[in-house]
Write the structure tokens for this entry.
Amino acid sequence: MDLLYTAHVPPGDGPHPTILALHGWGANAHDLLGLAPILHGGGALVLSPQGPVAFEIAQGLLGFGWWPITEEREIDPAAFEAASQAIEGFLAAAAERYPIDPRKTVVMGFSQGGVMAYDLVMRNPERFSGLIAMSSWFPDHVDRAIPTQEALQNFPALVIHGTEDPMIPVERAQESRERLLARGVNVHYREFEMQHEIRPEALREIVLWLEEKVLNLIQLA
């Protein structure tokens, strides 16, 4: 399955620090691309694929997601696996088209996209240099399906959540932090007085963490 996407490509030949940005339920490929001029001062290649599940938000207006949301709010394993494989295929194709720096590739996800980010990074930590999960959660069944990996030891992860989030309670982010710590991940966890959103103070935290813990650290090594 080929995913539609948007991209911010910085000037120069590269290779560029790269951020794979995975949007949440009801958004689209343009949703997180607006952060590109702010992240790494606009110097990062930002790739934002669009979820394969389309639905009508209002008449003539489509939203997209990574798996269908049911009344029971359970994740359909087949739909989840299809989305996971689609992201893997997208990333492989992007690596051939764009000058991605494999030493500086971060996966960032919001809400549903954060779940996909957890899955992608936890299964293949050696391929990435960092993980950002915003207003999201690390599901128990995904955690159980991932084998113990040495590459997760001290792997840098940033988890951000709103204390007033009405869609995903902050307790789920706290549980996710504990699961990451149990795997040896170097978790930087922050809560902000916000709902299911990215407030300016949360964005500042993301920018600082990227520079201090991932991109510049690797650049100087």
